């Protein structure tokens, strides 16, 4: 910021110089003009004296001529007759007033319409913050000056969460979602912030957020983790096991959080064994007694891609396999995720793949199966898909075939 003000002062000095140099030059020319007028007056006075002496007989005509010649020579020596006549009003203060007003007016206009605060912010961001509070202060100043900065709002939300300020984090996540759309990872993080802001109390709003996030991405980690935490806190241990098991499939075993989630699953299983009366599914929505149990239910699916499309997709493109209720909402009941490189593949969908702990795959008699392929890692932005196949979900021995062969 110091360099900025140094350069500003230098520019003001240059502006003042451009204004004052002509004024000083005019004053010098005016002084020379005044001196010339004085010399002419003295010359005329001297000539008048010579003529008076000639008239009185003190000087002869020859002496008068010589006196005139000498006076002419002295006048030429003292007067620059080649300089054009200058006209200026020495009493005018307008140039000096303008010179004084230039820096004052310039600074006033800059502080009114300029961006000194943004300059200061830019310079401060070059320095590494020493504390989390300093980071928050900088990010808050950034979103104040640049309210359309998505990155600033997002990092402010993350920093708020790191500092145990979930209410402010939720507001920042909502701002981010307003600008970039309802992306599944942002929805999950918003739900997490709201959950802790509300004293770890589950609500229909949170349920709607995680449902929307998991409908777009069945493996959205924050939503799955949050569902498991909420279920465990409410002693719905089977729900917690199901959510965390699904989450575990998306995490690298080398990731430090992998062991922590395994520990959580083990605790939930122990708690379930100690409290067998706790049920993940209310009795009113539990499957019929003749339906298969969670561990036994299996829906076999063969997934492949047509030969015509093999050359049009990349091996790293994401493949989503969805199971939906035939007569229910479009939101998937269960899903699995793999890549084109894994195809052809034989999959088995079980109740552990259910996205909603309260609605198991085995509790629905008629399902629709479909597979889609996306090169953006977003299930809602798939480019290719299979036909939607209606299946009898109670037939656990059937092999259901899905072939990716059509453009969405």
Task: Give an account of the 3D structure.
The chain is α+β, with helices and mostly antiparallel strands. Strand 2 and strand 3 form a beta hairpin. The chain has 13 helices and eight strands. It folds into three domains: 104 residues; 140 residues, Serine Threonine Protein Phosphatase 5, Tetratricopeptide repeat, CATH 1.25.40; 109 residues.
In total, the number of strands is: 8
The portion of residues assigned to helices is: 40-55%
Low-confidence runs: 81-91, 279-295
- Please state the structural category: alpha+beta
Principal-axes geometry comes out as rod-shaped
CATH topology of the largest domain: Serine Threonine Protein Phosphatase 5, Tetratricopeptide repeat
Cα distance spanning the termini: 54 Å
CATH class of the largest domain, please?
Answer: Mainly Alpha
Instruction: Calculate Rg over CA atoms.
Output: 45 Å
- The CATH level-2 architecture of the largest domain is identified as Alpha Horseshoe
Mean pLDDT: 77
């Amino acid at each position: 910021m110091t360099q900025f003000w140094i350069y500003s002062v230098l520019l003001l000095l240059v502006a003042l110089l451009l204004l004052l140099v002509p004024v000083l030059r005019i004053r010098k020319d005016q002084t020379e003009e005044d001196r010339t007028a004085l010399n002419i007056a003295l010359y005329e006075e001297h000539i008048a004296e010579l003529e008076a002496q000639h008239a009185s007989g003190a000087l002869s005509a020859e002496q008068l001529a010589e006196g005139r010649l000498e006076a002419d020579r002295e006048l030429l020596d003292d007067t620059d007759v080649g300089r054009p006549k200058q006209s200026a009003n020495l009493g005018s203060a307008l140039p000096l007033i303008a010179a004084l007003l230039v820096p004052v007016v310039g600074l006033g206009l800059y502080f009114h319409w300029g961006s000194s605060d943004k300059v200061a912010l830019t310079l401060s961001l070059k320095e590494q913050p020493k504390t989390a509070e300093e980071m928050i202060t900088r990010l808050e100043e950034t979103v104040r000056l640049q309210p359309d900065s998505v990155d600033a709002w997002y990092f402010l939300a993350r920093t708020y969460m790191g500092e145990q300020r979930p209410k402010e984090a939720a507001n920042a996540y909502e701002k981010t979602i307003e600008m970039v759309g309802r992306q599944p990872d942002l929805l999950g993080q918003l739900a997490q912030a709201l959950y802790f802001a509300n004293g770890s109390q589950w609500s229909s709003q949170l349920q709607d957020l995680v449902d929307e996030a998991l409908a777009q991405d069945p493996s959205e980690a924050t939503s799955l983790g949050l569902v498991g935490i909420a279920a465990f806190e409410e002693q719905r241990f089977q729900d917690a096991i199901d959510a965390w098991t699904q989450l575990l499939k998306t995490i690298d075993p080398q990731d430090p959080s992998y062991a922590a989630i395994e520990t959580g699953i083990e605790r939930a299983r122990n708690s379930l064994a100690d409290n067998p009366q706790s049920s993940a599914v209310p009795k009113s929505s539990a499957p019929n007694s003749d339906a298969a149990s969670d561990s036994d239910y299996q829906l076999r699916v063969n997934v492949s891609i047509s030969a015509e499309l093999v050359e049009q997709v990349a091996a790293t493109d994401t493949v989503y396999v969805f199971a939906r209720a035939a007569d229910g909402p479009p939101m998937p009941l269960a899903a699995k995720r793999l890549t084109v490189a894994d195809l052809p593949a034989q999959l088995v969908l079980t109740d552990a793949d259910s996205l909603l702990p309260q609605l198991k795959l085995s509790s629905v008699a008629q399902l629709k199966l479909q597979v889609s392929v996306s090169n953006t890692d977003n299930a809602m932005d798939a480019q290719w898909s299979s036909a939607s196949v209606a299946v009898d979900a109670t037939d656990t021995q059937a092999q259901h075939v899905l072939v990716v062969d059509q453009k969405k």
